[in-house]
Structure to design on (457 residues):
């Protein structure tokens, strides 16, 4: 967004600032003085412990063009561009909503229990070959992050790729109403946020809210091998939909898949007789790639351009990220987050990938699984095979449940549990790993297992 202060005041339907500041140009917005950019509109929030209004002077020092100010938060600073509003958060969201309505770029919105960030990166990477694209950066996928992302979209952008996260009902509904996507994608339904939503059916219902904001000509692409999603699609009126997945009953599925240590090759059920190379590890990422390919084809790209887009894309870190260890071991850093679905997918990759060395798993706690968390962890442990995996190490109090079950199947000494002792865990891994070994690191965000990866690099 690039608007004058007067235009922003009009968008917010508030009193205009001092006429001396009417022509001040604002580009984008920020809520953080540590990352604020020159020309941003600073938006301070008054929280229980921290009052953002205390940082307004600092925001101007770092290049802010103007600031919002909550009515009743004291006396606004003098001599600088200030817009007084009743609620800065609501003002941020209103500004983003109006800018979206005024702008001409298309929006691709993505949600799902697993894979939404990787799918976002794939879609943005592919489309960037043919369009001017901006995407959600980091974890800016909630009621604050998404409007900030929208306001950061440049005027000449052709496609904005937005990730939508949630932890409860009606949160996705709010985000999709704000973004008004032309294309929506639901990657899958897993177990994350069971403690808040109660069941996989509840999770599916919450994710499906993304369709409420689809434009009249909008379309939903969804994982068609998930019965919970196909059931919701059958009952939902008012928008186009198309499924993708492994099953032949889907509208879009691969005829063949070839896996390698560098990624996968997909032969599509299209008339082109062409392979598409996907430089991302794991069979589960084939599904994410199918979603990305489906979006690109819908927007008019051909398979040659799609393949070139894949080769140029950049993925967010800690998602099946290949890292070289200090001893020549291969570390797969998948430590950004974990649920039973995503952990099984990562383990399947480790089991199936070809290599000369040993295969070692480092598995951490899976969080936010509700009352059935012990069952989910023990099921993972029961499924591990000593014929496919050489060593299993677990970290965290819940991870010990995985270790207890795996110990019943593995030879003595091949399963170790570490509780919360990360220092000892690192020490043992430094002694255990050798050149050629494959080490998969997987756990929820709160376990900070990337610290182990850093210690082994």
């Amino acid at each position: 967004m690039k608007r004058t202060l007067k235009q922003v005041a009009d968008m917010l339907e508030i009193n205009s600032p001092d006429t001396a500041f009417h022509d001040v140009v604002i580009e984008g917005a920020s809520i953080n003085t540590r990352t604020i950019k020159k020309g941003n509109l600073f938006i301070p929030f008054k929280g229980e412990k921290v009052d953002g209004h205390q940082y307004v002077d600092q925001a101007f020092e770092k290049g802010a063009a103007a600031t919002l100010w909550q009515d009743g938060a004291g006396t606004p600073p003098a001599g600088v561009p200030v817009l007084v509003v009743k609620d800065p958060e609501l003002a941020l969201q209103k500004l983003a909503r109006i800018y979206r309505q005024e702008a001409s770029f298309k929006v691709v919105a993505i949600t799902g229990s697993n894979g939404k960030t990787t799918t976002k990166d794939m879609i943005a990477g592919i489309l960037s070959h043919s369009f001017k694209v901006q995407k959600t950066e980091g974890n800016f996928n909630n009621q604050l992050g998404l409007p900030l992302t929208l306001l950061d979209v440049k005027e000449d952008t052709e496609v904005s790729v937005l990730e939508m996260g949630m932890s409860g009902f009606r949160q996705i509904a709010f985000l999709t109403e704000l973004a008004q996507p032309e294309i929506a994608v639901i990657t899958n339904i897993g177990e994350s946020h069971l403690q808040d939503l109660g069941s996989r059916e509840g999770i599916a219902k919450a994710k499906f809210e993304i369709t409420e904001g689809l434009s009249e000509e909008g379309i939903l692409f969804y994982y068609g091998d998930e019965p919970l999603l196909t059931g919701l699609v059958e009952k939902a009126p008012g928008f186009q939909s198309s499924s993708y997945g492994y099953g032949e009953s889907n509208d879009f599925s691969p005829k063949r898949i070839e896996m390698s240590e560098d990624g996968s090759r997909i032969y599509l059920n299209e008339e082109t007789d062409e392979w598409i190379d996907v430089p991302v590890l794991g069979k589960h990422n084939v599904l994410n790639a199918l979603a990305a390919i489906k979006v690109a084809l819908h927007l008019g790209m051909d398979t040659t351009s799609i393949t070139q887009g894949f080769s140029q894309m950049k993925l967010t870190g800690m998602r099946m990220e290949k890292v070289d260890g200090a001893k020549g071991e291969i570390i797969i850093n998948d430590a950004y987050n974990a649920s039973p679905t995503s952990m099984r997918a990562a383990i399947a990759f480790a089991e199936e990938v070809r290599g000369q060395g040993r295969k070692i798993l480092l598995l951490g706690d899976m969080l936010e699984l509700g009352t059935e968390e012990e069952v989910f962890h023990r099921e993972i442990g029961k499924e591990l095979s000593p014929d496919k995996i050489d060593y299993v190490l677990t970290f965290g109090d819940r991870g010990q449940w995985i270790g207890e079950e795996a110990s019943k199947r593995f030879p003595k000494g091949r399963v170790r549990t570490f509780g919360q002792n990360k220092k000892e865990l690192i020490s043992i891994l430094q002694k255990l790993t050798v050149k050629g070994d494959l080490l998969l690191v997987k756990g929820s965000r709160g376990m900070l297992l990337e610290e182990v990866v850093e210690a082994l690099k």
Q: What stands out?
A: The domain at 2-88 is CATH 3.40.1390.10 (Udp-n-acetylmuramoylalanyl-d-glutamate--2,6- Diaminopimelate Ligase; Chain: A, domain 1). The chain has three domains: 2-88, 103-312, 321-456.
